[in-house]
Structure prediction request, 738 residues.
Amino acid sequence: MEKGTVFTTEERSQLLSNYRIIRKNLGNTLSSTDVRLVKEAIRKAQEIGCYQRNELGTHPVVQHLATARIVTEEVGLKRSSVLSLLLQETVGHIYPIDYISHHFGEDVAVIVKGLVKTRELYQKGAAVETENFRKLLMSFAEDVRVILIMIADRVNMMRELNQHPDSEFRRRVASEASYLYAPLAHRLGLYVLKSELEDISLKYLNRKIYDEIARKLNETKRSREAYIAAFIDPVKKRLEENGLVFTIKGRTKSIHSIWNKIRKQNVTLEGIYDLFAIRVILTSAAEKEKADCWKVYSIVTDMFTPDPKRMRDWLSVPKNNGYESLHTTVMGPQGKWVEIQIRTTRMDEVAEKGLAAHWKYKGIKDESAMDSWLNNVRDLLQNSEAKPADLMDEFKLDLYDEEVFVFTPKGELMKLPKGATVLDFAFNIHSALGCKCVGAKINGKNVPIKHRLQNGDLIEVLTAPSQKPKQDWINFVVSSKARTKIKQSLKEAESKEAEYGKEILQRRFKNRKIEYDDAVQTRLIKKIGYKTATEYYADIASEKLDVNQAIMLYEEMIKKETEVDLDARKAENFVVTAPTEEKTHKKEDVLVIDETLKDIDFSLARCCSPIYGDEVFGFVSSHGGIKIHRVDCTNATDMMTRFGYRIVKARWAGKSTSQYPIGIRVVGHDDIGIVTNITSIISKEENVSVRSISINSHAGLFEGTITVLIGDTSKLDSLIKKIKTVKGVKQVNRIDRN
Prediction:
C-alpha cells in the first residue's frame, strides 16, 4: 500500500458515520485520551505501511470501525473491545504489548493478543491445517470477548461478501461462517447474528434453495402479515384488559431455519406448521418478571389450544448463556400452528445480545456463566488429536443439545447435555472420579454407569479402585468432556502397555542375538495390518500377538528383502497406474477444470450425482483422481473446510451429449392409474428413458422412486414440473444418491 493515500472519499464518509455512532454507543466510557492515543497509533501504523487492504479491498481501519459498530450496537460490548479492534495492527510494529497494557488496561492487552493470534493463523490458512485450526479455537477460548469480536467481524465480512468476484472465495468464507461462527454465536446467545450468518451462508452454499424459499416467502408475505395482524389483535386486547405493559410483534422464521425443517421433516415449505412466531415483550419489575410471563402464558392458552409437547420453560432454569424465555405453540385461526415467545425487556436484550447483555445486568465482572464451557473447550483442544471437522462435531454436541438438570448429594445443581449418563456426571465432577466410576445411587437406588439421567435426579457416584476406563464407554457418553477424558485415559493406558510390549520384544531379540532394526520393524507393522506401532506392541504385551510369531515374521521379512532381485532398481523409472473402480466420464460433454484444463479424466461423485448443468467443483482425491461434486453436496462444506487446498474449480461447457442416471422421488395419493400417468409422461420425453421404478403404498399414499437416464438439469427440471401436474401427485424431488 502506498504511504499517504489512506482512505477513499467513500471510506472517509463511512469512517465518520461509524465513528459518531460508536462514540454515542460508548458514552463516557471512552475518554478523550483514549481517542487521541488511538488516532496517533493509527497515523503511525499508516506511515510505516502496517495496513494492507483485505480480500474485499477494504482498508483495515474501515473494516475495524464497521465491526466495532456491530460490537457496540448488536453485541453490547464496550470500550475494551473497541480499543482492541483498532490497536491490533500496532502491536509488534509500533508498540509492545506492555505499552497497550499500561495506557489502555490489562483487559485490552489480553483481547489484543487474542486478535493478533487469530489474524496470524488466518494468514497461514487456519481452516485447512489441523494444528492451526486448534490454535485458532484456543485463542478464542482465552477471553470470551475475542470470540464475540471475531463473530462480529465475520458478520461484517458476510454482509460485504457479494462484492468479492471469486465464487470459490465466497463459498469458502460462507462455509467457515456456517461451520464455526454460527455455532459459536448460538452458544453465546447471539441468536440474531447466528441466524444472519446461517442465512447468508446458505445464500452462497446453496443459492438455488435459498432463492426458492425467499421467493415463496415473498409471494406469501402479504397473506402472512395479515394473518399475524389478525392473530395479534385479540391477544393484545386481552393483555391490555389485564393491566399488562408490553409490546407484541410477529416474525417469520429465518430461511436457514425453514430449510432445516424442510430437510428434517421431509416436507415442502407449505408443510411446515410453525412458519412464524409471535413475541410478547413485557415491561415488568424485577420481582414480577416470572409471574407476569406465566400470566401471559395463561391468557394465551385460554384463548388458543396449546401443543403440550412444544412447551419450553427457560424461566425456571435459564440456558447456560443466560437465555430466559417461555415458549409455547398454539393452534391459531384457520388451523395454523403459531409459536408464542414470552419474555421481559431484560430477557429480550439478553436473547438478542447474549452474554454481553447478561453481564450488563449481572455486573461486568460476573463472567462465570462461561467459565465451565471455556474450561471444557481448553481441555478438548489440548487433548484432542481429531481433525477439524471432528473437533467441531465435538463442539456441536455441547453447543446445540438441550440440557438435563441434576443434583449432587450436597444439593448443588449441575447442567449436562440431554441424554447424559451416570458416567457423564462423574467425569463432569472430576476425571479421576469418572475413571473409577462403577455406578451410582440415584434417589437412593443403585443404577449402572450407562443409566441415563432425568431432570431432578439426586446422584451419588459409586467407585472402585480396580476400575479402569474401557473402549465401549465412548459409545454411551454424550458430553465432550467425558469423551475426551476417556480417550485420553485409554491412550495413556495403551502407551504404557505398548512400552512394556516393546521391552518384551527387544529382550527376546537380544536373547536370540538378532539385530533389531526400527525401519524394518515399522515396515512389518504396516504390512501385517496395524495402523500404529502402539497397537502392535500393546498386542504383544497383552499376548494377543505371540512374541515368537512376531520374531518369525520379522526374520521372514529380512530374508525377503535381502533376496530382492537387483534388477528391480530398473523399474524405478516406470509408473504403474492402478485401474480405477469407477468408470471415468469421457468428455463429449466438456468439463472445464481449473478454468483452463479440458479433456481430463474425472469421475462423478456418487454422494450427490452431478449431471450436466449442475453447478459443480472438483475435489482431488487421495489417489490423485478428480471427483466432481455439486456445490450443494452434503459433503461440500466439510471438504471445503478441511481440504480447501484440494478443491479445484470446475464448470460444464459445450453441449450435453451423454445421459446420466438420476433418481426422482414422487409422493402422492394412491389413486388408480396415477403411476401409469407418470410413466406415460416420462415415455413421451425425448431422450429420456426409465431405468427402474420402485413403488410403496401405505394408508392411501404412495411413494415411488424412479431412476431415469437424462441429459442435463434443464431436461430434469422440465420433467419434474410435468410430473407435478399429474392429478394426485403431491411432491416431486430429485434424489442425490443413485
